[in-house]
Design a protein that fits this description.
19 strands, 24% strand
């Protein structure tokens, strides 16, 4: 006989939620009798629980409670065969379908040192993953606990329980992957799928401890602040400049800086003096040094024109003075660096008779009048050496003293 005031349930059913994202529902009632109908929908599983222990599982379909389909429960409550006496139990409906819309994202930046550009960067990542219940008994024991009747739990209600597992794994794996594979932040987005697989392998065993199965794990995006990317872009720009300047890029760049500073602050004269010192100290590396020497040489030449006494030949040991502008030139110079006049002395023409030195263009000796030009034998027509008295071909007399 049914007790007075006790609500006897003869139809047990849960229709789910409109969005289908529910995870577990505790049926609002615990008094049942044999003969009651249990309706389990597609993608559901009904679990009878007694004393916190999961006893019987019933899949999709309509079930009439009897000693045939819940033998463990009936044995536990010790009901006589065919009895209509109410018995107490808890019924949970579990969603057995996959939930593929679970989101994850880093709460704080992951600090990483880029192995290529040696810049500290702050990475953020986000993505999604899929879970389902694999071990219903373990799940109820570990995560559900004591719930009020009529309580419906959603997948998102359990996300905080797993956030620590996910964030710790993504933090460690992302940093480790970048360092071990020497992947720059400019390339990391092409590795998102591979990183997602590594995270999945790392985390899946952790979820099994709660009776859950992680079906997949995706990294949808890895982002970096604009200021971090600007630092790397600046490095790339400077690298491109160095590559264009060549192997001596450091010395060349420093010379550019010196030239710019002197032209802006000290004027042409100061730049010339600094250029002379820099030229002797550094050797004026490459084409920049040559250009600098030309600039400074021209400037000193201009100074020599206005002050010959200060830059004359006497001012520098072994210097060659320009006969035109009196500029002091380096020993052995062939042309004046001040005016461009030719400095190298033309070879003198030696008189074959008196050995007097004559100008290169002279045709006769300016001392004895001897012809310095080429002569020919009047008898055989053979060309003779300057100053010859007899033909070297036929012996004829060429002239008299």
């Amino acid at each position: 006989m049914r007790g007075v005031g006790v609500a006897i349930i003869d139809r047990i059913k849960f229709d789910g939620t409109a969005d289908g994202k529910w995870l577990l529902h505790k049926y609002p009632g615990e008094q049942f009798v044999l003969g009651s109908q249990l309706i389990v929908g597609e993608g559901q599983l009904a679990i009878f629980v007694k004393g916190g222990r999961a006893l019987d599982f019933l899949g999709p379909g309509t079930h009439t409670l009897s000693t045939g389909n819940i033998p463990v429960l009936l044995k536990l409550v010790n009901l006589p065969f065919g009895s209509q006496t109410p018995f107490t139990a808890e019924v949970y409906f579990v969603n057995t379908t996959l939930n593929m819309d679970l989101k994850w994202g880093t709460e704080s930046p992951i600090q990483i040192v880029d192995p290529v550009y040696r810049v500290r960067i702050n990475a953020r990542a986000n993505g999604q993953y899929t879970l389902r219940i694999a071990d219903y008994s373990l799940f109820l024991t570990q995560l559900v606990g004591t719930r009020r009747s009529g309580t419906t739990l959603m997948f998102q209600d359990f996300v905080p329980n797993f956030r620590g597992i996910i964030l710790n794994s993504i933090d460690t794996i992302l940093a480790q992957y970048i360092v071990e594979h020497r992947v720059s932040v400019l390339e990391i987005r092409t590795k998102q799928k591979e990183i997602g697989v590594l995270c999945y392998e790392e985390m899946k065993d952790e979820f099994t401890k709660f009776g859950m199965e992680m079906v997949n794990f995706f990294v949808n995006s890895i982002n970096f602040p604009d200021e971090d990317m600007e630092a790397i872009n600046e490095i790339l720009q400077r690298k491109a400049e160095f590559d264009i300047l060549g192997d001596q890029r450091y010395a060349t760049e420093r010379q550019f800086d010196v030239m710019e500073n002197f032209s802006r602050n000290e004027g042409v004269s100061g730049m010339a003096n600094a250029g002379l010192g820099l030229g002797m100290g550094l050797g004026m590396v490459g084409p920049i040094g040559q250009a600098f020497s030309q600039i400074t040489g021209h400037t000193v030449g201009q100074q020599a024109q206005t002050a010959p006494a200060a830059t004359g030949a006497a001012g520098t040991a072994g210097a060659v003075a320009c006969p035109q502008c009196h500029h002091a030139n380096a020993p052995g110079a062939r042309f004046c660096s001040g005016c461009g006049n030719k400095l190298e002395a033309a070879p003198a023409r030696i008189c074959p008779k008196c050995q007097t030195e004559n100008d290169e263009q002279a045709k006769f000796c300016n001392h004895c009048g001897t012809s310095l030009g080429q002569t020919f034998c009047p008898q055989c027509g053979k060309s003779q050496s300057p100053g010859a008295r007899f033909c070297n071909e036929c012996g004829a007399t060429l002239g008299t003293e």
